[in-house]
Write a structure and sequence with these properties.
The chain is an alpha+beta fold. It has helices spanning 8-11, 35-54, 67-82, 86-90, 137-141, 215-228; strands at 26-32, 93-94, 102-108, 111-117, 128-129, 143-152, 155-160, 173-174, 188-194, 197-202, 205-208. The protein is 28% helix and 26% strand. Strand 6 and strand 7 form a beta hairpin. The longest helix is centred in the N-terminal third of the chain and has 20 residues, at 35-54.
């Protein structure tokens, strides 16, 4: 079973580093250049994020990294190192940036969009801030919250929590295939929508959710769901 995202503070309640979550606003910036140039900026983004915790950047107090953040950073660093395309960077999520998780989305063969928070300076990153209406944080990140709506014959059905997410192409319902279990009753879960694919955010990764493809089964689930309501 895939577990619900755990806030770093819950994994290490005694860590003072978790106090670095003041009110902030989201932002989007663009990385440009050949693949290796963008890879370098990806390392810089991770370095700045860690530096905010250790006090190297941002002017905060120097704190020891929690085991969770250290392990996550090491794993992300390896993913950056092993990446061979911008699509590989799209599968990375930095869940421990302040207030807003950090997402990556390919814009072109030599451009990568970064959706993140703006109360980090990111001074070590060569970037271009983006103010285009169709490239706001939520459009680039591609995520919104879903709630477990029903369980029918072993199929978990999730309903979009916010109506305004429909404007970004987020479907009202998500139908993971039978056997893919999330089961977060009375709690919401972040789904990321990229084209026709739906992903679950889990431990700084995007996990692709296999969806019901059989039209007969899909129509049956919709019918039973409507009858239940």
């Amino acid at each position: 079973m895939i577990k619900q995202k755990i806030n770093p503070a819950e994994k290490n309640p005694s860590s003072k580093t978790q106090m670095l979550y003041p009110n902030c606003s989201e932002m989007v910036f663009r990385l440009s250049g050949d693949f290796e140039e963008i890879r370098t900026q990806m390392y810089n983004i991770l370095e700045w994020t860690i530096g905010e915790y250790t006090g190297k950047y941002g002017g905060g107090d120097k704190e020891e990294l929690s085991a969770y953040i250290q392990k996550s950073a090491d794993e992300i660093r390896e993913k950056i190192k092993s990446a061979v395309s911008l699509e590989d960077f799209e599968q990375i999520v930095i869940e421990f940036t302040c207030n807003y998780d950090t997402f990556f989305k390919k814009e072109s063969d030599n451009e990568l969009l970064v959706a993140t928070c703006n109360n980090y300076g990111w001074d070590n990153v060569v970037k271009e801030e983006v103010y285009e209406e169709d490239k706001d944080y939520y459009n680039v990140a591609g995520y919104t919250n879903y709630i477990l709506h029903d369980v029918i014959d072993g199929y978990e059905i999730y309903k979009r929590e916010y109506d305004d997410a429909s404007e970004r192409g987020m479907p009202e319902f998500a139908f993971p295939d039978k056997g893919f279990k999330i089961t977060l009753e009375n709690s919401d879960v972040k789904f990321v929508i990229r084209g026709d694919n739906i992903f679950l955010i889990d431990n700084n990764n995007l996990i692709k959710i296999p969806q019901v493809k059989d039209e007969v089964m899909l129509n049956k689930l919709k019918l039973l769901m409507n009858l239940g309501n």
